[in-house]
Design a protein that fits this description.
By secondary structure, the chain is α+β, with helices and mostly antiparallel strands. It has three helices and seven strands; from the N terminus they run ααββαβββββ. Strands 1, 2, 3, 4, 5, 6 and 7 form a seven-stranded mixed beta sheet that branches.
Length: about 160
């Protein structure tokens, strides 16, 4: 093969690899923004529509929600059970196939109980394995599924 053809082929391979890397980072950042948002952002329709597809499925070990309608309230209700939360996730491993992608990550979540009658309860801390799907929409990439599998926990949820 002619050296110029080899150089052109290598350039195309490099460009494709960079595009895939960029898309992987874009998709991974959706989950990063979700995790940070639970602790620090105002959860509203703008938050939800910037992260999720219309038909999103969110699955936790204790509950699930389907669709973007009501998703904000679903999260607000769950977070209101706690005085504070702190979610930390690993970088996501992303696989892309055309306009669909999958992701995998681990998450550690610390949940601080509300004080009752001056009593301080131990934090509820959990480690979860997270899997998800993303789809490319007219608005860009959006999460279409997040599933959280409980791996370990310490403490107890609210009674």
């Amino acid at each position: 093969m002619h050296p110029v053809m080899v150089a052109q082929l290598l350039e195309r391979i490099h460009d494709q690899a960079m595009k895939i890397s960029h898309l992987g980072a874009e998709i991974s950042s959706l989950f990063d923004r979700y995790a940070l948002g639970l602790d620090y952002d105002k959860l509203d329709d703008e938050w939800a529509s910037s992260l999720f597809s219309e038909d999103v499925l969110i699955e936790f070990p204790v509950s699930r929600h389907v669709g973007i309608d009501g998703l904000v309230e679903y999260h607000q209700k769950a977070l209101a059970m706690w005085a504070r939360t702190h979610h930390v996730n690993t970088p996501s491993i992303v696989s892309i196939a055309a306009d669909r992608a999958t992701l995998r990550a681990n998450m550690t979540s610390v949940h601080v109980h509300h004080q009752r009658d001056g009593e301080t309860l131990p934090h509820y801390v959990s480690g979860t394995y997270v899997t998800g799907d993303a789809v490319h929409t007219e608005q860009g990439w959006r999460l279409s599924r997040l599933s959280f599998e409980l791996i370990w926990k310490t403490g107890n949820p609210p009674t």
